[in-house]
Automatic annotation (TrEMBL), chains A, B, C, D:
Keywords: Hydrolase, One-carbon metabolism, Purine biosynthesis. HAMAP family: PurU (MF_01927). The gene is purU. One of its GO terms (biological process) is one-carbon metabolic process. The active site is at 222. Belongs to the PurU family. Residues 5-75 form the ACT domain. GO terms for molecular function: formyltetrahydrofolate deformylase activity. This is Formyltetrahydrofolate deformylase. It is an enzyme of class 3 (hydrolase). The keyword DNA damage does not apply. Catalyzes the hydrolysis of 10-formyltetrahydrofolate (formyl-FH4) to formate and tetrahydrofolate (FH4).
Length: 277, 277, 277, 277
């Protein structure tokens, strides 16, 4: 029997759960898993429900809409792999980790293509029989290059775009073309060491722990909603290059974990934060 | 406004959430937080709901009982400190950590008494103006001693009993007198190193990580449902005594975390496992 | 037989280890443990050696001085508890944790006194039969208050001063009175969230991990050499107060670990970093 | 200038460091890094020294031999990639992780070949232009199969053999053919859950943390000296398959870390333990 994930994002109100579960019950659906969260500051209500049964999607959405506040966001996703496009540049460690996990069946995703602004990663990607496209920025303005990127990305109609060390700064236009759909890995334990070469900064500062952060991309560089973070211990004997290498291992794990959360429809965004249910 | 925690443990069935939320709604109560879990193997349904409102406890329980399967367990606890009795023997590290946290207001508990089978810890406990009782096992059979312990414990009608390195083996009688109410800290990463002197065992085995485990006490020594575990890295330079010292820090943290979960009514037990919502 | 810890901090040079070990050998001393580190950037050489034997301290130091570069720092500490003074203000969690560990024999220290700028913690400290002094800042300039603090501190000739949530900003004069001898706990994962109310900052930013940092106090507020750091996971359901509570547990562990490293003479400082051997 | 790693494993004695460093000094060599450890129980002395200079290997070894006890083990390895053969069966996750790291230049190794007892992994391995050999056990006795494995392995004269989920039990003959040269990853936090399907065991037991262990292979199945371990949190919502998936991520990380330690000549073995310097 098919599994669906119902995602509701609305304003808290008495009887919400009752009204929602009433509709599910009337439609003869079973709740396999359910979690709710109400943010006490904003009184925003978030609900993620895994349901099974013979679902008539349009009817269900219509009936839910009727019992929910006007400003509600209601999503009903069948539990299935999401179409994804990965963007990269030259670095292979994060991309390679995703590809090998994909090969291994670890990702609930269909990687439709890898698009890079350099040729370096073509061999790696093609090993895995995944289409690779190079959209060079050579001699193009940022806007011109992005238009070509967007055009290429849209060919694959991805639900998610994963930046696997894509080293170009994105314009508002790009970001707003894919709201809440672009996942990035930042090579530092945000908000520490924002900006260039965080590992060198970390080395100079003599920190004992370094980390990485996966976040949604927004107009604010390195300031998007944080989805997942992890850290690793380092010590005085690490050169900044060794810190970078240690950090790369964290980057892989952090991006992988955040990616899975998105693929499983577990992440809500509000204000500049995430709720993970 | 008072907060209550509703705990439901029953068999999964279509419409459960609907029927429960219907009753809450009809009683004009608000759901602040809610999580459910259905165990796919046993089809057991667990629900923890934080509700606010003007609650008529008997009516609410009666109405919930009417809409739930016969075998259901329904608890409705006002959110308030629980009465606790701590049992100890001679070791002070875990007890001391609890006492200083209690002094600091970190525990949602009323520590009614500390009862030990030796005098060693009297000074420590009395520093914190908590009643200390020594029930010596001197010249008593295990059963005789336990009867005296039970008698003393019952004077304080505790909801929870915490074994803070209480080094006596408990009989079935004792365990069954307080079902799902006795919390123990085991000084190893169960199920590794069951039995005596786990740190010496760990040292001999040359492990690189040691841990501790907090679990409910059952008839099966060291085999009760696990509530919380944590670990710490060690290396070749640790003597077994140093491993023990490192382990003691984990024991404190693990017992504290498990204790908080119980105080917050977040732990369900089924089969020999815990569900934490 | 007495154990000594030999600490050498000098410029790297061929034959250093040979010359040092030659002196130790000539003095009929045994090396129990030894680690060296050479910083490749600065060619600074650090060595920590645990030696046993019948030591004539002056002779040994004289002979070592003869074989080492002029700019060398040579320390020879008998392995024994260090005299410590703790400074505090009103918060009890870090202080309480230190006191209970001290009571439990976990610290290789003699806590000579706790000095605070308020009376709040007197009861707690006196429970443990440790002298408590309140040096109020009431109506005093920062300099006047610090002079009184320094006067009181010096009565106890401490080797180390531990700031257990001492909430006063220290002047250069104070810092320079006790170079590399003042340990502080900062309630954030430095360099993230420098400044006031880091937990509120962390909450606003929606981070998934928070931490704490123990560092030497220098003129640069929150910028001293980092000794130890640790972190804990948090999620969207944490209010900033709950983040603070989770953070307090990390603060305790971090300060304790850094304190132990100092008590064991394992920390060297160079540039604005620490080498831990 | 070439870097060498000097590894000494002997019985502790006064003047050891002096005598060793004297030889190094006389040979005009520089000590870049040095750590020693003396096991207090056995009085075994372990030393790892990174040296640079113009080394005449035979002379140096001869002179060191002269100043060290007879039973000493002295190794002098040039810092360079080690030749490695990987054994596998059908599972791709650990092998794939090693291959992608190898591709990415993370491993100080030359992977000469992957040898498996099934054909399943040929495609994966050959993507990376690494020779793949299938030595089927079809219709062979354990001894016959191992003889063919040994024959194939020896073609590549590997310094290290890595078992990347090689699911065959090894005989004493095999183990003794490659003493202290066979690295295995065990899919549990040893010594917990020894034997078949540890994840199912862990699930049944309801543990809150699972782990993995990398160890040298000895005659004692799952009992060899432990090199590295790590863990990950799980909870009641994990099926045993989900625990296995979570565990696979730990297996990768643990094997990678242990492998690096061996490649960097940082691991000594004594009794059934490892010293890591």
């Amino acid at each position: 029997m098919k599994e669906y994930i119902l995602l509701i994002d609305t304003t808290d109100d008495k009887g919400l759960v009752y009204n929602i579960s009433k509709v599910l019950y009337a439609n003869n659906l079973n709740i396999e898993q359910n979690s709710e969260y109400v943010d006490p500051d904003t009184l925003k209500f978030f609900m993620r429900t895994v349901i099974t049964g013979d679902i008539k999607k349009d009817i269900l959405l219509k009936e839910l809409k009727e019992v929910l506040p006007l400003n509600s966001t209601i999503k009903l996703n069948e539990k299935q792999n999401k179409d994804v496009v990965i963007l990269a540049t030259k670095e292979s460690h994060v991309l390679g980790d995703l590809l090998i996990r994909y090969f291994d069946g670890e990702l609930n995703a269909n990687i439709k293509a890898v698009i890079a602004n350099h040729e370096h990663l073509r061999d790696l990607v093609e090993k895995f029989d995944i289409p690779f496209y190079c959209v060079s920025a050579e001699g193009l303005s940022r806007e011109e290059h992005e238009d070509k990127m967007i055009e290429k990305i849209n060919e694959f109609e991805p639900e998610l775009i994963v930046l696997a060390k894509y080293m170009r700064i994105l314009t508002s236009k790009f970001v707003n073309t894919y709201p809440k759909r672009v996942l990035n890995i930042h090579h530092s334990f945000l908000p520490a060491f924002i900006g260039a070469n965080p590992y060198k900064q970390a080395y100079e500062r003599g920190v004992k722990i370094i980390g990485a952060t996966a976040h949604y991309v927004t107009d604010d560089l390195d300031e998007g909603p944080i989805i997942f973070q992890d850290v690793v211990r380092v010590d005085h004997s690490y050169s900044w290059q060794e810190m970078r290498n240690a950090g790369r291992n964290v980057e892989k794990i952090v991006l992988y974990n955040a990616f899975q959360l998105l693929l499983d429809d577990k992440v809500f965004v509000y204000k500049n934060k995430t709720v993970i249910l």
